[in-house]
Amino acid sequence: MDAISYERAGDIADALRAAQQPGTVFIGGGTNLLDLMKGGVTRPAKLVDITHIPGLDTIVSLPDGGLRIGALVRNSDAANHAWVRERYPLLSQALLAGASAQLRNMATVGGNLMQRTRCSYFYDTAFTECNKRQPGSGCAALDGHNRMHAILGASPQCIAVNPSDMSVALAALDANVRVSGPRGERVVPFGEFHRLAGEHPEFDTTLQPGELITAVDLPPPLYSEHTHYLKVRDRASYAFALVSVAAALQFDGATVRSARIALGGVAHKPWRATAAEQRLAGQPLSDALLHDAAAAALQDARAQRENGFKIALAQRAIIRAVNQAAGRQGGAA
Ligand code: SF4
């Protein structure tokens, strides 16, 4: 049995000081971390409990009309908060699509950003080949079961996908992640928070050692009217996405002024479909335009042995999500 030390932080400075010891991990809701520890996937030397830090469990309105959601706000509280529902329904929908009611009541916004892939080889330590768990050991999924794995941005080192629904909406909404660390505070644009596996799949994010997520900032709500989060999965609830789509639109009459589209379940990070967004912008929405945009979004997709179906599925999900966001009956997916 490994010995683990535990410390409860009273404030952010306290947490940062306590985290100076190598092998320290912050714990909030613990819904993913405790599973990883029980399975022997993660073996921290020290846990720093951040759940008693005041001020991190609030949602406040920002002067520019945006929102600041504290890192300790529970997923269910964020999803059901009146300001989130009114100004960012895409985020509310995505949060409610995640996990189960019990888990959403426990899981925090900061923890959701940090949850690790659900690749079964990563969780099962009987498999010795996993570059994410043990750098340099190989990747059992490459020649194994990879139905759930990446079709975009994959690396020969790791083809795992990010499991978060919330993060797909935050990617589409251009959120920012606020971080405190030994060198002070910084703000990370959402697209730069999670990383592709590349040569170092052991790192899921660009967080530096000892840094603590304190909040997520949402920009002014430009996309509150026409949004839809579509999650395609094997079961109706409590299942991770095969493919998910966060779609948000602005219109000038019948013409799309701008579009924001992000995909989940397809890459090591939430995948922003900028090529599709560009195809839609400035055009009246039509079936032909949507098919063109969906094809553009997946033009660089590469299938693994078992997940070729995801490419067509993602295209059809984009079409359906955008149609739903627009309130349009179109060529269905
Ligand atoms: Fe490990 Fe990534 Fe390969 Fe899964 S896909 S076995 S997480 S290296």
Automatic annotation (TrEMBL):
Domain FAD-binding PCMH-type: 1-223
The keyword Flavoprotein appears for this protein: yes
Gene Ontology molecular functions: FAD binding; oxidoreductase activity
Stored Pfam families: CO_deh_flav_C, FAD_binding_5
Keyword Transmembrane helix attributed: no
Keywords: FAD, Flavoprotein
UniProt cross-references to SUPFAM superfamilies, sorted A to Z: CO dehydrogenase flavoprotein C-terminal domain-like, FAD-binding/transporter-associated domain-like
Highest rank taxon of the organism: Bacteria
Protein name (record): Xanthine dehydrogenase YagS FAD-binding subunit
Organism: Paraburkholderia megapolitana
